[in-house]
Design goal:
Distance between the termini of chain A: 31 Å
Largest interface: A-B, 69 and 69 residues
Number of helices of chain A: 17
CATH architecture of the largest domain in chain A: 2-Layer Sandwich
CATH superfamily of the largest domain in chain A: Bira Bifunctional Protein, Domain 2
Strand order of the largest sheet of chain A: 3-10-11-19-16-15-14-12-13
Helix content of chain A: 25-40%
Radius of gyration of chain A: 26 Å
Oligomer: homodimer
CATH topology of the largest domain in chain A: BirA Bifunctional Protein, domain 2
Largest sheet of chain A: 9 strands, mixed
Chain lengths: 511, 511
């Protein structure tokens, strides 16, 4: 059971050991919030999550991975509706001119955690006035009216541009949608046709907060499934077959009050119409399985929260957030799963005047494909991996990460700095590197201290060269979680480490 | 020998087969230039180049790879000098208000390719007036004065920002410099201390051009070596030892007129003082070797061009561009190699008021480390890989890429769509995937057409299942470059493909 307080400990540990830390703050204290640096450990973990996603989602699902730029023409966001709809509501203190996000101001002033997203400007203003909400900075009760604050960063590209003509993308989706036709032709595509992107996105958040949870620049792993709305099941009927009894965990709109999570099999989702079609049902299953079985999040901490009017994005017909629960942060969205219909493609067709329709295989119909999009917030995933892995027992702190996700896979230590132990240990270290392991060599400080340093960053295996090594060619192999040690022959180390780290074998079964 | 005209053919091929293409143009014809999409093949090649760089540079050189955000506080660029120095000179036609980069206007109007970077505004204006240079758009000779046009995109971050307070980075360097102290502490660093970054950079180029060569958003692989200026040789004396007779190819400032390339051994570079110290000499050797031996660029097409006053960046004491030659594009910079001294750190120390000095190991000196930076333009490298790989012979077009750089490593075909051949071929395809190869299955069109499609994207090996396969369990293996074929037993395929693709073995030696 995770205790409250883990959040602060994880942030402290991550900053101190170089997983991540706030950008520029070490030198420029007043640097804008919401930007983070990844240090070597965090970066390697992030790369591992991306690799697992490619291995489990991109390759087996036939996703065409592309990379579109961060800067896109403003027209793209006119067509996508972001210029009109992608904003937060802002209010300004008339006395000190501080600005606040309206929902946050109300929530924090009244100490409530209600959903205010569906309320109109008038209703929000009424709450502020009736409750006499004061400016948190100067105490004044005099407010301007509520204004829209667009969350996109706009830019003037080129020497002749007097006004912004481009923007930093707030999602990678529009890149895929704008390049859909070109990609579809180039790759001899047929529907369902799937694009994928790993990329940065940018949002001018009014109140960035909670470390990697709400940032102004962050990374997404996005899948864009384009399909024939009249025939969404063709491929997916067969693909879903093995998972018809798999239970998907939902918080439905009608259970919002009680918080009751319903476990619905894929079959029930389809039969009741709740999960719409085979294609969407398959992806809901796939992502819950990916987060549970590959990324290691316990099932009881996962749920798909159905979004309701006012919460749903402007483009979505159906919308579930895949959320994870921690005692400190409550339920936090990790994946935005949106059925966007042909909203985006038809917007671009209208604004550009270009025909973006495709022709059915029999040549009889021209139509706009529909789009289903599961979009992972990579930084949040990494942060929750750390939150859920954090363990302490007295002085000892360790990260019980899935072993294959650890940024350092195996550390090699000489017990002492003499009798040829360092040389032997370095030899083993180099051998493990050449065998493809992410290895780390350390000879400074007591052996206990070196173990603790590795525990703290989640290194699953520590190999120690001691006196016996010099005699019989065996080393000790220590398990991060149980602290148990076994002796292993050096030449058997790579194979045993592979089954320990990548196949999750128990350390006792290595003997 | 490469012929002129390759450039256009490569751009056409890359666009048609999905290596890369201009962003948004398929739908929005007027989208700003200088932004590109990578399709699956280009993206995979790019990832391979990054992997090779990590394997050959980052890991063996002990580089700490970090990732800093694209958006940094404006203060950072005040300190780095980019706000003051990072601009192009611009001139505007008084009649039609078109704007032009002054050097480009002069070069293109007069048909010269001279270096104008050292000239003052007055000297440039004189050339324009004396030669009666006209506006290329409307023909007017009336010009405004020469203005500075800053190449950075600035941004207002946060709801209260009325003016820009941040910018998209024009290089990843400043992120590393600002995080130097924090990284150094976190990673228990000692000098020389090396940071590395893979990341996007953004420059508001007035005239983006030549496909991936001059873009507004592009990617860099940067190495930032921080070292003690009083002791630059400690580690590198030993590291350089094996390469003292290695010949580095320079175009020195005094040979600029004749274009003569001097081959200087590392020893000569040190003895004459030309390459300054062991550290810089080592990195010059390492990068020439990396481009030649790993990325496959012929030595005779590589040179380090020494930059002279006026060309050098504002921060550089010494500066060489590692360039590559093609008949179409001439010499093009691939790597910016700059000895930046303590220019950057001292700027940040001044502007921030924070002490960024480190202490010498003996505790006697406090000093600012110096910075040497080799910075690779990733997109240009990829583009030149394609340029140099392009081959044609009658109708046949192929990319003679280093085999391990090919985006598809092996294609598997059934000779015909019958007699169990497709099933057998798919089985082999899946086996190769599970063995870690990037494989591709194709059964549509004649076998000749399928070979041509693979030749065109540089696939080094094609495996074909034919009648004989069904009888004796052998397949044909075809070499992209020679079109020779050998028969290989299916169970030996993975091992033989490995030596063919990754070890460069001749196809005949596989027998």
């Amino acid at each position: 059971m995770k205790m409250k307080g883990t959040y602060d400990k994880v942030v402290e540990l991550a900053t101190r050991r170089g997983f991540f830390w706030p950008s520029s703050r070490d030198v420029y204290a007043g640097a804008p919030a919401g930007f983070y640096v990844y240090g070597p450990l965090g970066l390697r973990m992030k790369e591992k999550i991306v690799s697992l996603w490619r291995r489990e989602v991109v390759f087996p699902e036939g996703v065409h991975e592309i990379e579109t730029p961060n800067i896109l023409p403003l027209k793209v966001f006119e067509a996508s509706g972001h210029l009109e709809h992608f904003f937060d509501k802002l209010i300004e203190c008339k006395r000190c001119h501080s600005r606040f996000r309206v929902d946050k101001l109300i929530e924090e002033s009244l100490g409530i955690e209600e959903n205010l997203e569906g309320l109109s400007d008038e209703e929000l203003m009424k709450i502020i006035v009736e409750n006499g909400i004061k400016c948190p900075k100067c105490g004044s009760k005099e407010w301007t009216g509520i204004k829209k604050f667009n969350l996109m960063f706009t830019l003037a590209v080129g020497a002749e541009a007097e006004e912004p003509n481009a923007a930093l993308r707030p999602e990678t989706t529009q890149g895929s949608v704008v390049e859909f036709r070109k990609s579809y032709m180039t790759m001899r595509g047929k529907l369902p046709f799937i694009l994928g992107q790993v990329g940065r996105v940018f949002r001018n958040e009014i109140s960035p907060r909670r470390a990697l949870i709400r940032m102004r620049e962050f990374q997404q792993l996005e899948i864009h499934v384009f399909f024939d709305p009249d025939n969404p099941d063709e491929v997916y009927r067969e693909k879903l077959e093995p998972y018809m009894d798999y239970k998907i965990r939902f918080l439905r709109r009608e259970d919002r009050e009680t918080g009751r999570i319903v476990e619905m099999t894929a079959r029930e989702g389809l039969e009741t119409g709740y999960t719409i079609n085979h294609l969407i049902t398959y992806w809901l299953v796939l992502y819950q399985k990916f987060f549970n079985e590959v990324l290691g999040f316990p099932l009881e901490r996962l749920r798909y929260r159905e979004l309701i009017e006012g919460e749903k994005a402007h483009y979505a017909l159906a919308h579930w957030d895949l959320e994870v629960y921690t005692e400190d942060l409550g339920w936090v969205e990790l994946v935005n799963n949106a059925y966007r219909t042909d909203y985006d493609l038809s917007g671009h067709m209208k604004v550009s005047g270009n025909d973006l329709r495709v022709t059915s295989p029999d040549g009889k119909r021209k139509f706009l494909p529909h789009l289903y999009e599961p979009s992972i917030g990579l930084d949040r995933v990494l942060f929750h991996e750390l939150m859920l892995a954090y363990r302490e027992d007295g002085e000892r702190v360790w990260l019980q990460l899935p072993r294959y996700l650890a940024p350092i896979e195996v550390a090699v230590f000489p017990l002492m700095k003499k009798d040829g132990m360092p040389e032997k240990a370095k030899e083993i270290y180099r051998m493990l590197i050449s065998e493809g392991f992410i290895a780390f060599y350390d000879e400074s400080g007591t052996i206990g201290r070196r173990y603790r340093r590795m525990d703290e960053v989640g290194t699953p295996a520590c190999v120690t060269v001691d006196h016996q090594t010099m005699e019989d060619g065996t080393v000790t192999l220590r398990d991060r979680d149980t602290m148990e040690q076994v002796r292993v022959r050096i030449e058997e180390l790579p194979a045993k480490l592979r089954s320990f780290i990548y196949e999750g074998k128990d350390i006792k079964d290595l003997l």
